[in-house]
Amino acid sequence: MSSDDNLTRLQALLAEQAALRRVATMVAGCTPAPVLFGRVCEELGKLLGVKSTDMIRFDDEHFATVVGSWTGNDTPSFPVGERIPVEGESVTAKLYRSGRPERVDDYDNVEGELAERLREFGVHSVVGAPIYVAGRLWGAVMATSEVAHAFPAGTEARISSFAELVTAALANVDARDQLAASRARIVEAADAARRRIERDLHDGAQQRLVSLALNLRRLESSLEPNSAATSDLAVARAELDAALEELRELARGIHPSILTDRGLEAALSAVVGRATVPIELDIDSCGNLPLAVQTTAYFVILEALTNASKHARSDRIDVRVAVGEGHATVEVRDDGGGGVDPARGSGLSGLADRVSALGGTLEIESPVGGGTTIRARIPITAPGKRRAAAADVEYAHA
Asked: What whole-number distance in Å separates Cα of residue 154 and Cα of residue 219?
């Protein structure tokens, strides 16, 4: 083999490794699946110098959906989202049956709807490699050429290297999705425990104290007015009333029953009614929001109000809750001293974790002397019900 041939092979190897590194960097950077699929097809197509490349997801034994595509020079190809048949002796069907890389070197005599459409696109040869997720066949990456017998031996292995990176990306997405779902379940379980404790306090200790307060009132009414016993009983009843109010406040802090019974708007109105600082409340209709979202929004607002009234010396607080574009946006703005540091035990760091568990974000703007704005953006659909790779293109195990 001549030195020129060795140089050509080395250059091809370096180009392939560079393309794989670029794709691997995107995988590590948690690039959204639709973008990643398209870039994989582009890198592979340019590396092989072919007419077009496609990535498909197998829906079942009869159909597959195109999830990524690239074409050179605007040549015809299947658009993303189109369903194609899995039939006959096409590469798609052969790969689905074998689960291994497959090729068709000449489509001239291949029968079926898919083969006919490929010929209409000017395609005469195809090579493809499978994509696996969790050990099961998920889809495939395929390269096409307008020339019969265009792909040399070893092309399958080159395509398989890209397919393996897609497998890693989908595995990462699946792991992130499961982690998000697990965190959301923990939050929901904690909220359920809060509601149970609140009910137990209301139906148990609180009712006993209310009954005791009524008995003390009846006893007080039976005593001589202005007697020592009446005076002592009045002091005891005042202490009991204070304890009962503290218990009610504790129950509201654990989980306000009004939030479960009447929703976020009623719960916030009750908070505003008890506030010692003027609060302007602007809230969209939240009745259809999941309880986990309403509960998280409530505690974000409650913590922000507590900080503003106790620590920021605010004269006015604005609270806004808006619903739209698949999210609930919560914003609490005060005119206090600012300088809030979530790392110094303000309670906001814990709320950030709670919002994050539902797939949301919490932002804090608090310049010294410039007031504080706390903004949470909470997805309405729980993470466990979202397919993380399906922000724009749904994926599922075959």
From this structure: 96
